[in-house]
Amino acid sequence: QRAEIGVTGLAVMGRNLARNFARHGHVVAIHNRTYAKTQALLDEAGDEGTFIASESMADFVATLERPRKVIIMVKAGPGTDAVIEELAGLLEEGDIIVDAGNAHFPDTVRREKELAERGLHFVGSGVSGGEEGALNGPSIMPGGSRESYESLGPLLEDISAKVDGVPCCTYVGPDGAGHFVKMVHNGIEYADMQLIAEAYDLIRRGTGKSPAEIAAIFREWNSGELESFLIEITAEVLAQDDARTGKALVDVILDQAEQKGTGRWTVQNALDLGVPITGIAEATFARALSGGVPQREAARAALPAGTVEWHVDDPDAFVEDVRRALYASKVVAYSQGFDQIAAASQEYGWGVDRGAMARIWRGGCIIRARFLNRITEAYERDEQLPLLLADDFFVDVVSQCLEAWRRVVAGAAQNGIPTPAFSSSLAYYDGVRADRLPAALIQGLRDFFGAHTYRRTDADGTFHTEWGADRSETAVDGGFT
Ligand code: NDP
Hints:
alpha/beta, binds NADPH dihydro-nicotinamide-adenine-dinucleotide phosphate, globular, 7-stranded mixed sheet
């Protein structure tokens, strides 16, 4: 008996993916550098399906049907390169290597190119949903050659999450596209979490409600348009009491947020592409600020608030305002993330279908949410939609939230409550919809100190003012005065 698919790297993620395949009736070859993990899988879950275990990579490869399909689920970085190298030496033309770890997409582009030259398919695939998702149905974002998807796709779709019977897995695009989309997914996850954290903080400081009371608010929000995994688990975390002190657990957790780096990659790439993903960037910087212990200590000791303690007059109305501010800011963050996918797709020639990405994020992954349906519909209405925020549905949403959003951001500023994601999203909203931006002045300044030139509203071409001389204007590049 041959295995339909192989998994190498049997830590939490690989082990659960392998079990997921087995539970779906697929024969799975399993391998791990250290055999103990393979044995543990057999001991603890061997009865869930058909596993073929191997101690050596060569034996592992020999158990696979052709074209061989091997999923690598090891620590991202040099470990992945080592495993790819070992595998590539054992595989034959047309076989498929899938890297389902969290690789940085430029690494995936490089690996795909190298392996394509050796006649092998390399599929960089995003997998989201953590260990629970890997076992019960993740969201899967495979890149690589379209040809590889023909034999690999049905297997991946089979083990992916399903929403309304539709798999949360689809072909994303060539080489690094899958890992890129996963990276942006994680960036959006950062923004979502920051927005939720700001909403919690505002309600707590504005109304004095306890974490348990705020948990109830999030539970209620989760039955409406904000319904999502992150809102659901926010209620769980806020309602949790600490066994040791009896306090709310959130009050004894150190307030320094950590990160593994996908948010940073997302922001770095957005800077390269020149896409304003302010929501994700502010969320990433907010984590950095929280971890800046010496700076926070110095600031706490020296800087006044210039405000008195905040008590809103009508707590129920305030909570509803915060809900609307959260919803509008969330729409902005997603709109920005999808802009980044569009820009990258254009830059790297990937042809990513944004509506399909929203569809495969509806289940299995951390940002799964009811409102992703609305995003898919928006791109179905217009595949080339220049700005998600300007789709009719989202125009309606944001219009209904706008007054509340402004009240919340203004109130937060007046009362000294940091809301980087709420306020930057509102600033983005007002910036992107503005008739005229002060960018005109920036261009004037750039021309003044660096002769960087500017374009005019009333004539084609490029112009420069002789700032140091008679301040006459000259046409630099095909323009006329
Ligand atoms: P880890 O990232 O902790 O990696 C451990 C695994 O990598 C072990 O199987 C280990 O083998 C293997 N490994 C490390 N270095 C090498 C090497 N040089 N050669 C061969 N094998 C090596 O495992 P996770 O399951 O947490 O994650 C796997 C991948 O999935 C990572 O890329 C991660 O970023 C990604 N991911 C993780 C998620 C999560 O929620 N944890 C979610 C989505 C993606 P050994 O047992 O021999 O040490």
